[in-house]
Automatic annotation (TrEMBL):
SMART domains: KOW (SM00739). One of its GO terms (molecular function) is mRNA binding. InterPro entries: KOW, KOW_Spt5_1, Rib_uL2_dom2, SPT5, Translation_prot_SH3-like_sf. GO terms for biological process: regulation of DNA-templated transcription elongation; regulation of transcription by RNA polymerase II; transcription elongation by RNA polymerase II. One of its GO terms (cellular component) is DSIF complex. It comes from the Eukaryota. This is KOW domain-containing protein. Residues 175-202, 229-256, 275-302, 340-367, 401-428 form the KOW domain.
Amino acid sequence: QLYVLADSPKTISDSLPFSLYLAVKQYVRISDEEREAVEWSCRKIPNPAWVRIKHEKYKGDIAQVFDSDLPNNFVVVLVPPRDFPYSMPRGSRSLLDRSRLPNGDAVSNISISEEVIGCKYKGERYYMGLLRKNVHRDRLEPVICPHADDVQLHLQSGWNRTFLKITVHAFAMQFLRVGDWARIVKGDLRSEIGQVVSTDHPAGSVTLALTFSGFRKEVDIRLEDIERIFQVGDSVRVVAGSYLGVEGYIIQMVDDIIRLCQDVSKEEVNISVESVQIGDSIDVLIGEHMGKSGIVRWLSKGGNYLWFQHESSNIPVPIKTVQQIPNLQTLQFTQDRGYDVKAGDVVKVARGPEYSTKGVVQSVDFPNTRLTLLAETDHSLVDVPIGFVIKVHDTSLDSFKKDIGQEVYIIGGDYKGYRATLYSLSSMDCTVALHRQQRTKIQLKNVATRLNGAMLEGPDMLLFCEMRRRSYLAPQPRSVTPPPEKVASSSSASIENPTVSQFTWTTWSASSEDLDTAGPLAWLMNKEFCSKFATHHAMLKVSPSFMGGRLHNRFVSMACPNPFLGLNGPAPEGCVAVFCSSNTAGAAIQHYHIPATDLSPAPPQKINQQCIVLDGSHRGSIFNVAKCSLKKNMVDIAITLSAFLNLRFDQICLVEQSRMTV
């Protein structure tokens, strides 16, 4: 229903746009009771929300709604104070500096779940530096999306971080235009990149053009589920901070610094995208506070100043006068293990807007170097860069207990690359049996339970793929299966069991006849191919026998970088994790685990598509299709600018580069 205040239906119809005019079927004058209910719903302000104070000393200031359910139409808001219980220049607006309040009983803490979030002093309450005020509803004006500069002090305070993030994102999305590029950050299409085709800002949605299996498809996405992508050469305008209004084009992007060449003066300026974060340790290099150091407590995002805590004082200094001290405790990328974090680990945010948040890791997005944790205090989901957190301790042993008696994969140490049976657990290691032989102890960090979040890359991924390749082989009769051979180990590492330390087990061997029984995907796990599938999706055809043939006329994409671990979990033995877009409205991505025997390589459909060669001297190489004959089932692939190779469809497989590749 659409409620309108007017003197007649004709007045309403004259003011409606034509499309809405046609949709109106009936005009009804409502009762006085319903009118009161409608007017009350209009007066009530949601919580949380932004409001502008319209009268008295705080006229024009933006405030956060703290409590909108007070009697007599009063609303509790949080606003940066204008009056201070200590000496401040006339007209100052800043957060309360608690270090300048007297010590003793005159100041008392305000706490939630044993965490101090504010203080009480001389009858006033302050929440993370913001003043709590009671204001009548008639003196407030709702603000849907305030300018980022108008809520800078709220951002510095950090009160209600989830709401602040939504506000900043909504402000940034107002400038999204047709032709811009954006990345999807939530939902089934997460990490996909597309170009903006149309925007509907009032409805909060955008249409992106995405490419699936070489075909363009337009998808409607909520604005809150995407983020803007900037590239060198883009023409931009600064919309907040000290360079507000500056226009130019991007000439360089390094880490958190965007170098901009101004259109008019051609002067080059560096725009910092929060290179210094809340929680960082800094040294002051010049100025009256030179030589002092401390922890950043507040940060003027896009502005010129930060506040750092030195001993018992919070000191404001220009950002350009400080030097950040690297935090060596945060998670760092290493060549041998990548980022050492997985679901179930307990971490604490050491820098950024979510500073000091502690919780349990729910998921890890390695390609985009971000993780999601469940906050310990309010149980909200917090998304942060991996490099912003410190690991408190590894996942609880409870997450492994369900795997006792099950098969595990050894991803490090002397037995790297082997499969074993898990028998028992302790705080640092576990006991396993290799090929049902004598038991030995392995460090927990070297064991993966069906890829329990451990990141495998490079040689580790090849070893894992080699193990999974063997799982496709048809089992031989027990009477003719040879026992594993024992060969002397060249490793100098010591193992607690002396009888095991003298030997290392060789892998099971497979004959060419065994490979033939694995179906059309016997080549999938060979080393020359699986390294390619760390960065490319293999496109596969599905047998009519799977799901009654529902996917028979479509191509599916193999999961990347791990073909056995999709968004719906690890694939069962002998299956591959794949996905494809659905035929329903919105083109949601559907994920499947399909037996390898029901999959076969997909052929190309047109020129310029990419294919991987399955046979011959160019086996394992990826080339572009120069000519495609669907009638003859033949293609010409471009080896060089002037050299072409003619191949049959059964000698190639269609591939598509992963947009999640870093």
